[in-house]
Design brief:
The protein has about 280 residues and is an alpha/beta fold. The chain folds into two domains: about 10-80 and about 180-250, D-Maltodextrin-Binding Protein, domain 2 (3-Layer(aba) Sandwich), CATH 3.40.190; about 85-175, no CATH class. Helix content is about 35%, strand content about 20%. The chain is built from eleven helices and eleven strands. Helix 4 links the parallel strand 6 and strand 7 (about 125). Helix 4 (about 105-120) packs across helix 7 (about 165-175). It starts with 7 loop residues before the first strand and ends in a 27-residue tail after the last helix. Residues about 1-5, about 130-155 and about 270-275 have low confidence and may be disordered.
Length: about 280
């Protein structure tokens, strides 16, 4: 295959933070075809060879490193995210109910637990059902409908409420942007031409982000997210953030051994990197 005309299929985790990738890659001149689907479906597409590249939640990848090659250069991160929030009653005593932990909610579940425990001294009650009163990462349509207004239960009961931006809380905790999603191939399938094709397509799309956001029929919060908030560079800050996340995955018992991630190498740019848990 000519590395300058690589045609790729990308299975994209369907989520507000990945929306521009899922929709905007349609303008790549047919070089890259993207399909939005659930995180579990995207992971299966990679495993089964139904997609060349996946854009998956960072926690899913770090919890299953043996299955993936992590591509360098581009990723999705942010120091805030108005569509990823949790509402907390600071006066309610004791632990809060557990959050469901399937493929779609495991990332926000872990991030919520970290924020509540490390910043607010609250813990998740694993024996209780349900979830905290949260506007967590979900569809952007759902997010826009969950904002409290007149007649809301919070106003009727006059209970104090704190709306926490989970990415902002993470940034205040570790001083790095939170990495939401990573580009991966099946283990052993990464190649320099794939790395460069994905990198070039995402960076080109980043340059058009303003125009895309203005034409995408977005709410004010969503437009701000896509135009200015989301970061698409897999830089040293993103690597450092993932290193911190690896430690929390281990500390919170998500993985039995501290994850050691290595980035796939682009022979042209020598971009291999390994995290240092120290």
């Amino acid at each position: 295959m000519d590395e300058h005309t690589t045609n790729l299929t990308i299975a994209v985790w369907e989520n507000p933070v990945t929306r521009m990738i899922a929709e905007g890659l349609g303008d790549s001149g047919g070089r890259i075809v993207s399909h939005a689907m659930s995180a579990g479906e995207a992971a299966r597409a990679i495993a089964d060879g139904g997609a060349d590249v996946g854009l998956l939640p960072s926690t899913m990848i770090l919890s299953g490193l043996d299955a993936y090659d992590i591509l360098p250069a581009v990723a999705i991160s942010s120091t805030s995210n108005p569509l990823a929030t949790v509402t907390l009653n600071p006066l309610a005593p004791g632990p809060i109910p557990a959050i469901e932990q399937d493929d779609e909610t495991r990332l926000v579940s872990l991030l919520t637990q970290i924020v509540l425990k490390e910043h607010y001294g609250r813990t998740i009650d694993s024996s209780a059902g349900g979830s905290p009163s949260a506007a967590a990462i979900g569809s952007s349509e759902k997010q826009s409908k969950t904002a409290p207004g007149k007649g809301s239960s919070a106003q009727k009961t006059r209970e104090p409420q704190m709306k926490l931006d989970l990415a902002r809380e993470w940034y205040e905790l570790v001083a790095y942007p939170f990495v939401w999603a990573l580009f991966v191939t099946r283990r052993g399938d990464s190649r320099p031409d794939i790395i460069r094709s994905v990198r070039d397509a995402i960076l080109e799309l980043e340059m058009r982000r303003g125009a895309w956001a203005r034409n995408a029929n977005l709410s004010k919060q969503e437009q701000e997210l896509y135009e200015t908030v989301l970061r698409y560079r897999f830089d040293d800050l993103a690597v450092a953030s993932l290193t911190e996340l690896c430690e929390y995955l281990f500390y919170y018992g998500i993985v039995s051994e501290l994850p050691q991630f290595v980035l796939a190498a682009d022979d042209e740019d020598s971009q291999g990197s390994e995290n240092d848990p120290d």
